[in-house]
Specification:
- The complex is a heterodimer of chains A (422) and B (344).
- With 422 residues, chain A is an alpha/beta fold.
- Chain A has 13 helices and 15 strands.
- In chain A, helix 9 links the parallel strand 9 and strand 10.
- In chain A, helix 2 (53-73) packs parallel to helix 11 (324-339), helix 3 (91-103) packs parallel to helix 4 and helix 11 packs across helix 12 (344-351).
- Chain A starts with a helix and ends in a 12-residue tail after the last helix.
- With 344 residues, chain B is mainly alpha-helical.
- Among the domains of chain B are: 2-121 and 169-246, no CATH class; 128-167, no CATH class.
- Chain B contains 16 helices and three strands.
- In chain B, a hairpin with a 3-residue loop joins strand 1 (128-135) and strand 2 (139-144).
- The longest helix of chain B is centred in the N-terminal third of the chain and has 31 residues, at 2-32.
- The chains are: A alpha/beta (422), B mainly alpha (344).
Chain lengths: 422, 344
């Protein structure tokens, strides 16, 4: 009996000491990192299977890599945990994934591939947040670039870290404006929201900036279905186009480029996504000097982005290109530290209009439409050299910076009438 | 002109690839009265086995070994599965091939992963087979292999020269398909075994009573059909992409070919394959839409009509669904198919 009592007392004592230690530690920590030790779950909903599977796999590796980096250094002290879902690039599968993510208590959703998916998600998230006050989820859009998402369909719960189609086209056409040898342009795009928008903005903005340029052809093909682009290339050649503008990505771009090389088409390509998995290999040396990419980052930025690309490459034997995740983690960390909370409603309010320094310089999450305002880079495909040393997919080729556009150049107006929760 | 030639060649090569698959499918159909739903899956297995053998021993051994492996698999499937359900009638037979397609898909994803593998054609086939040089001065010329750069550049700015290389992979695809057609035709009409197969198609009981082993003939035909699909897989997989959805993408088109050509008709399958290959290729080149049609006959469309997305659809946008439209039309107006003989 007495033995037991002593034992219990001992246990209580050590417990008390332990509590005291924990309390003092967390007090000391609280000054620096207000949310130390808290875990924030982020659902990642993107394709891991099918033709676009390789893109999704690369991005899942990227987001995990970034999460690891930011777990060590974010100002809020939170731990980001990634919960991946394979949506097979289907809006229906994505809604199922969203539902199970919400059921698992996840409040932050990331998605990027396919504006078709994004439009479905934004709808579902709006409804969910309206019907379940106190259980809101935020939508971190890392790559779906349909301008509708920040215009007619804009949502308070949606934040976009990529630059939308109109912004990239603004920068792309600003570049084409000074290229007198671009005379006949062909528009080849995927037949869904993003591809249609690329074609629309290309026509509008070229007409403003270079009214002398002729659009000699325009085509929309099914998304992630076409295996043989030879008929399209034959058509492009026959149209006499010297330049192709395409928003294609994944296999839709790599197979297009492969068919172009095989059929000996040597016009210029202005692309959004020529550095995405698979395409650098398809481009090879044949694309040198005539394949342009507009993007929010490039392979030879120097400093920390290049350092991380190298680390990522050592780890996964792949190239990192989705830097939008970095802006996202940066911003979540700042907003959570500021509000001392991981509550999505408070974090959303703090993210609106937030200005911060990201990998590509000073950026701002525009309050009126939740579109990140950021610099864009125009690069061209060429052999690696002393100035541009980072080779993509072991091709010995890289993207060389030809022009940098500060945020204000690519900034486009918004028609968003944001409905904020009262 | 060079556009027409190149598009025609593109269409024919795609059509011939379809024929490599549909020939086996239509033979199996005419023999057993069963549409083999797993036929495109054999195509996929051929591509993946070819990829694996090619990465160990090179492309050419892969081109031989993969069809043999797939053919053996097909024969085993017929012997141990299909034959057992044969006595229950056609529906169970159909369902077992349907099930097999899913089993193969999952197995392929388990073994080779869910994303595309990099199956490159051999060095010999990477360049162009020949180049069409169209000069506004000298007309159309054909140069074997890649055309020298000097030939493709006009010295005079007024002369327009267009060089259109035709990839060797596609040339090889056409060559193999034509050789296969020839071999198949010779075997069916000129050899003893061909005669047995032909007679087993229509009068299996009679052939059996004459002392031939008809079930074994069935097994061989099923195996041979699968092997042809495997061969097409190695060529198609290295020319286009090798990935788990390749069977699902091609399967429906195959049924269109078999139905349009006429169930069980080899000549019909050949004709329908070429027709569908060429139609799909040329449809992409056509930019006409309903709206354009209305405008061309002199009616001025209203604003709501001009903005209607259905009216604005061009033929090139609907190119992927044309084969299926074709299928529906054939079934309505000529149910036995182009060259079919069955009326049921």
């Amino acid at each position: 009996m007495s033995f037991k009592l002593i034992h219990r007392a001992k246990g209580l004592l050590s417990l008390a000491v332990g509590v005291a230690l924990v309390v003092s530690a967390s007090v000391a920590h609280a000054q620096a990192k207000p949310l130390a030790g808290q875990t924030v779950k982020l659902a990642w909903i993107d394709p891991l299977t099918g033709l676009m599977g390789p893109v999704g796999n690369n991005q899942l590796n990227t987001v995990r890599f970034m999460a690891e980096k930011y777990n060590a250094s974010n100002p809020a002290g939170v731990k980001f945990e990634i919960v991946p879902f394979d949506n097979k690039l289907s809006p229906t599968e994505s809604l199922n994934a969203l539902k199970s993510a919400i059921d698992q208590g996840v409040h932050y959703i990331m998605q990027g591939n396919g504006s078709s998916v994004a439009l479905a998600l934004v709808d579902a998230i709006n409804k969910h947040n309206e019907r379940n006050p106190g259980k809101e989820v935020l939508y971190m859009n890392t790559a779906a670039v349909d301008p509708d998402l920040t215009n007619s369909k804009c949502s308070y719960w949606h934040f976009r870290f990529d630059a939308d189609t109109s912004m990239k086209m603004e920068a792309m056409t600003a570049f084409i404006k000074d290229m007198p040898d671009v005379k006949n342009v062909y528009l080849l795009n995927q037949n869904y929201s993003h591809g249609v928008q690329v074609a629309k903005y290309a026509k509008e903005m070229l007409a403003q900036k270079r009214p002398d340029i002729k659009i000699v052809g325009e085509d929309l093909h099914p998304l992630a279905q076409v295996r043989d682009f030879a008929p399209y290339i034959a058509k492009i050649k026959a149209s006499g186009a010297d330049t192709v503008i395409t928003g294609n990505w994944g296999t839709d771009l790599s197979l297009l480029v492969k068919a172009a090389n095989e059929a000996g088409y040597n016009g210029k390509f202005f692309t959004y996504y020529a550095t995405v998995t698979g395409t650098p290999s398809a481009l090879g040396s044949a694309g040198a000097g005539r394949v342009y990419v507009i993007g929010y980052a490039h392979a030879n930025m120097g400093g920390q982005p290049t350092q991380w690309m190298k680390e990522f490459n050592q780890k996964t034997d792949d190239d990192m290109y989705t830097f939008a995740y970095q802006s996202m983690f940066e911003m979540l960390g700042i907003a959570m530290a500021k509000t001392k909370s991981t509550d999505p409603v408070k974090v959303a309010a703090a993210m609106e209009g937030l200005k911060f320094k990201s990998y590509n310089g000073d950026v701002e999450m525009r309050k009126s439409d939740h579109q990140l305002q950021q610099p864009l880079y125009m690069t061209v495909w060429q052999k690696t050299d002393a100035k541009f040393p980072y080779q993509l997919e072991k091709t010995g080729m890289t993207q060389a910076l030809v022009k940098e556009y500060p945020s204000y150049v690519s900034s486009t107006p918004t028609s968003c009438q944001m409905k904020r929760p009262s | 002109m060079e556009f027409f030639t190149i598009s025609m060649l593109n269409g024919l090569s795609y059509g011939l690839l379809l024929f490599m698959l549909s020939s086996g499918l239509t033979l199996i159909f005419s023999m057993m009265g069963v549409l083999n739903f797993a036929h495109a899956s054999f195509y996929m297995v051929g591509a993946y086995v070819g990829y694996t053998v090619a990465s160990i021993a090179g492309f050419w051994p892969g081109l031989v070994i993969a069809p043999l492996v797939v053919g053996a698999l097909g024969a085993l499937f017929e012997r141990y599965f299909l034959r057992r359900v044969h006595k229950f009638g056609h529906v169970p037979e159909l369902l077992i091939t349907f099930g097999l397609a899913f089993v193969i898909l999952e197995l392929v994803q388990l073994i080779w992963g869910r994303t595309a593998v990099e199956f490159k054609p051999p060095e010999l086939l990477r360049g162009p087979a020949f180049t069409l040089v169209n000069s506004s001065l000298d007309g159309l010329q054909v140069v074997a292999g890649a055309a020298p750069a000097a030939l493709c550049q006009a010295a005079d700015a007024a002369v327009r020269i267009v060089c259109s290389p035709f990839p060797a992979t596609r040339g090889f695809m056409m060559l193999v398909a034509l050789l296969m057609l020839l071999a198949l035709w010779l075997m069916l009409t000129r050899t003893r075994i061909g005669l047995v197969i032909q007679s087993a198609l229509t009068h299996p009981e009679m052939v059996e009573s004459l002392g031939h082993n008809v079930p074994r003939v069935f097994m061989m035909v099923f195996g041979a059909g699968a092997a042809l699909a495997g061969l097409a897989g190695v060529i198609g997989g290295s020319t286009f992409v090798t990935e788990p959805a390749m069977a699902a993408a091609l399967g429906p088109v195959l049924f269109v070919v078999v139905v349009v050509g006429g169930m069980g008709s080899l000549a019909g399958a050949f004709l329908a394959s070429l027709l569908i290959g060429v139609i799909q290729t040329f449809a992409i080149a056509v930019d006409y839409s309903l709206l354009g049609l209305i405008q061309s006959i002199g009616i001025k469309p209203g604003a709501s009509m001009a903005g209607n997305s259905l009216m604005k659809l061009t033929v090139s946008q609907v190119a992927p669904i044309l084969p299926y439209l074709f299928l529906v039309l054939i079934l309505i107006f000529r149910p036995k198919g182009l060259l079919g003989t069955r009326e049921d």
